[in-house]
């Protein structure tokens, strides 16, 4: 996920329903934006999507984008994991380690 807003705009213009698709483990494009620190892409999608339920969608682990963004550090998902537990399972780059240190 590179945060290419120009590509995202074109995809959204030509295939708007593609933004509502879910990926493996029930993740939405919003989950991916949060996981990969793509704030500009997230803002674009939130500004252009008109589906409040999509904003609060849970992945297969019960995680919403709010939980992924660590709005509540001690919030539990449907599997009893907190944000730090989830982060420990998916560390990918230096930013993930920095988030873990902050938690």
TrEMBL record:
Pfam families: Ank_2. It comes from the Eukaryota. InterPro entries: Ankyrin_rpt, Ankyrin_rpt-contain_sf. SUPFAM superfamilies: Ankyrin repeat. PANTHER family: ANKYRIN REPEAT-CONTAINING PROTEIN BDA1-LIKE (PTHR24128:SF101), HOMEOBOX PROTEIN WARIAI (PTHR24128). This is Uncharacterized protein. It comes from Citrus unshiu.
